[in-house]
Design a protein that fits this description.
Layout (H helix, E strand, L loop, with lengths): L16 H13 L7 E5 L6 H11 L6 E6 L3 H12 L11 H8 L8 E6 L18 E7 L13 E2 L5 H12 L7 H13 L4 H13 L2 E3 L2 E3 L3 H17 L13 H10 L3 H10 L7 E2 H9 L14 H13 E2 L2 E2 L1 H13 L3 E6 L2 E6 L1 H8 L1
Parallel strand pairs: 1-4, 1-5, 2-3, 3-4
Antiparallel strand pairs: 6-7, 8-12, 9-10, 11-12
C-alpha cells in the first residue's frame, strides 16, 4: 500500500488572510526551541484541510518529508503510519506503525519534517500515542473537535466563518462569475451568503450548482443566477444541502447536512435533545442564565396571565427531563452538554458580564429545524 499524500488544492479555494497570517507566523516566521504543533479546528466543511494543502503548496521546500495521515480513527492512523514507514527503504518492508513513530522521533539533523493528522474528529480518540516529540518534527492537526486545540493552546487556530468578502469571492469563483453584477443579483448573492452562514463548502456547492445549470447560447453566456438559486434554496433547502457535489473542496464528497449528520450520530442522546431545544431560538447569544432562572422557578409562570392548555404540564415535564439532573437543576450537568456540543463545533460560546451565551451556526440551526 502506498503512503497517502495531502489532497490537492481545490480550484475553488479562497485564501483567508487572518488564518493564513497566523499559520505562516507560527510555522515559518517564528523560530522556536520547542516542537511546533499547530491544531486547526472548526465545523465540517470550513476549509481546514484545504488550508493545510495550500500551505504545503506555497512552501514546498520547507519540509524534507511530508507524512499525511487519515486520523479519523485509531486504525486508520496505524494503517497510514505503517504504509509510510514501509516507503523508507527495503529494510523497512515489514515495518509496523510503532516503527513509524520511532522514525518520526529521530528526524535527521538539519532536516524538518511535518506530520499531518487530518480529520481527527473523534473525541474518544487518544492522539497522544501518535504524537512524536522530536523538535524537528512539526505536527499539523485538523479536527471538528475543538478540544484538539489543547495539543497546541498557543498556536490553536479556530477556523470560523469566512468574511463577507471572502464568502462572495468563493461563491463567484465556484459559479465562474465575475463582478460587476446588477443590483438585484448582488443583493441575492449577499442574501444567499448570509443564509449559507459564510461556510466554505456550502458556498462552493451553491456556486457549482449555478455553474452546472448555466449555458452558452450563440456565444453569449446565460448564467443560472443567484436570484434563481436563492428562490430554489428557500423552497428546497434540505434537499440542496444534503446533495454532494461531484467537484467540491479537496474531493469532499459529502453534502453540508450529511457532514452535520456524522457529528450528530456521535452525540449522546441528551446532547442531541438539547441541540434541538436550542434550534427555535435566534442563533446568536442564547443566554444560559435564562434556562437557569426558568429551572429555579420549576418552569412555572410567575403570574397567571392567561390559562394554559393541558399540554403545558407535558412541556414542563419534558423541560425538566432535558435540563434537570437527578430531578433538580444542575448547572454543571448542562455545561457538560455544552462542552460536548462545542467539541463537535456544533455550538460556540462567549462570556459577557459573567454570563455564558451560546451561538449556533445558521446552517446548524437550519439543519436542526429541517
Amino acid at each position: 500500500m502506498a503512503a497517502k499524500t495531502p489532497p490537492a488544492v481545490s480550484p475553488y479555494f479562497i485564501l483567508r488572510q487572518q488564518p493564513w497570517k497566523k499559520m505562516v507566523d507560527h510555522l515559518v516566521t517564528t523560530t522556536s526551541s520547542q516542537q511546533k504543533i499547530f491544531p486547526i479546528t472548526g465545523m465540517g466543511g470550513c476549509g481546514k484541510t484545504q488550508l493545510v494543502s495550500y500551505f504545503l503548496r506555497e512552501y514546498p521546500n520547507l519540509y524534507a518529508q511530508v507524512i499525511y495521515i487519515d486520523a479519523s480513527s485509531s486504525s486508520s492512523i496505524k494503517l497510514d503510519l505503517q504504509a509510510w514507514a514501509r516507503t523508507l527503504g527495503d529494510e523497512h518492508d515489514d515495518d509496523v506503525w510503532e516503527d513509524a513513530i520511532r522514525a518520526l522521533n529521530s528526524v535527521p539533523g538539519g532536516e524538518q519534517w511535518v506530520l499531518i493528522l487530518d480529520n481527527a474528529d473523534d473525541p474518544s480518540l487518544d492522539l497522544n500515542q501518535f504524537l512524536p516529540r522530536d523538535i524537528h518534527l512539526t505536527i499539523l492537526i485538523t479536527s471538528r473537535n475543538r478540544d484538539i486545540g489543547d495539543h497546541g493552546p498557543r498556536s490553536h487556530l479556530e477556523l470560523g466563518e469566512m468574511t463577507p468578502e471572502e464568502a462572495l469571492a468563493a461563491l463567484l469563483q465556484a459559479a465562474q462569475r465575475k463582478l460587476p453584477m446588477d443590483d438585484e443579483e448582488m443583493r441575492s448573492a449577499q442574501t444567499l451568503i448570509g443564509d449559507l452562514g459564510w461556510l466554505a463548502i456550502a458556498l462552493v456547492q451553491a456556486g457549482t450548482y449555478c455553474y452546472q445549470l448555466s449555458s452558452t447560447v450563440d456565444g453569449v453566456s446565460e448564467p443560472y443566477t443567484f436570484t434563481q438559486y436563492l428562490s430554489l434554496f428557500r423552497s428546497h433547502r434540505p434537499d440542496l444541502l444534503k446533495k454532494a457535489e461531484p467537484s467540491s473542496l479537496d474531493n469532499y464528497q459529502r453534502g453540508v447536512y450529511t457532514t452535520l449528520d456524522l457529528s450528530y450520530k456521535a452525540l449522546p442522546q441528551e446532547c442531541r435533545e438539547f441541540l434541538h431545544f436550542l434550534s427555535p431560538f435566534h442563533y446568536i447569544d442564547i443566554p444560559l442564565a435564562a434556562f437557569a432562572q426558568a429551572a429555579k422557578n420549576d418552569f412555572e409562570d410567575p403570574d397567571d396571565y392567561y390559562p394554559r392548555d393541558d399540554s403545558h404540564e407535558t412541556i414542563i415535564s419534558k423541560l425538566k427531563g432535558l435540563l434537570y439532573k437527578d430531578m433538580e437543576w444542575n448547572e454543571l450537568y448542562l455545561q457538560g452538554i455544552v462542552r460536548n456540543l462545542r467539541s463537535f463545533s456544533l455550538v460556540t460560546a462567549s462570556s459577557m458580564n459573567d454570563s455564558l451565551f451560546l451561538q449556533l451556526h445558521p446552517l446548524v440551526q437550519s439543519w436542526c429545524r429541517d
